[in-house]
Hints:
The structure is a single chain. The chain has about 300 residues and is an all-alpha fold. The protein has one domain (about 10-285). Helix content is about 75%, strand content about 0%. It has 11 helices and no strands. It has helices at about 10-25, 25-55, 65-80, 80-95, 105-110, 115-140, 145-155, 165-195, 200-210, 215-250, 250-285.
Amino acid sequence: MTTRSNGPAAGFGWLARGIDVARRHPRPMLGGAALLLVACLLPSLVTLPFQMHAMQPGAQPSPALFGGLMLVSMLMALLVVPLYAGYLQVIDAAERGQRARARDIFKPYTQGQAWRLIGYALLLTVIFVALVAVVLMAAGGGLAGWYMQAVAAQANHVPPPGLPAGFMTAFALLSALWLFMTGFYAISLGQVSLGNRGVFAAIGDGVVGALKNALPLLVFALSLLLVWLVATIAIVLLVLVVTLLAKLVGMWLVFVLAIPLYIALALAIYAVMFGVMYHLWRDVCGHATPPAMATAAI
Length: 298
């Protein structure tokens, strides 16, 4: 399948359309995001007791325990990837004017697509770990040891160690890797879940599509940074207002308002993030012309 390159302004357009699709289809988007959020929290809940034990004062983080926790989290995260594909299918149906329901995120499991998506996720994990390892080796071998020392310092409530040599090089390389992986993941996941491509073909499309659209991906990252700064200012102002009201009414107001606001923010982030992924995939590999816009039912 042909991958298309886009102009720099497409990066801003992906973010704008990702926000807009959540606004136009709130019921399937936010409902699906709620189900997805619960599914994504399950791996963290399973490993939480071990994490709490490792964070106790005086506890020395074991590399074996740390590696085991990472392995368990990654294996459980593989089971969530079919739901990501299902969520993209919900967005696609909503954008096409078809019936879209929040529970349709489970369709990859009910329609026998889950194993292919889990295989895709496993291959993607291997690629990601390999790329991170290459970056860490290029920046110097002391970063992993420094991270373990920082975790131990946090657990023992002592000042963290100073930044190791090569930290800024690693930061720059990891930032470039994040930019590439953003496009690569969106395109390849869209291909395997919406484009009916095989796993290896989808991976190849993701690599080529991300490289072809490096400049719009950079514009997207800068646009995301600006939006995040504005959102952070708005959140800080909201926190100040809630704190002032809590002093006048009582601290119970903080819990009454903070929990729904936190959940709403998390759902909005999920909806916008996958909306961006969908439109990025569509501009690079998907429909050449925008599908008919219609309000989806749930």
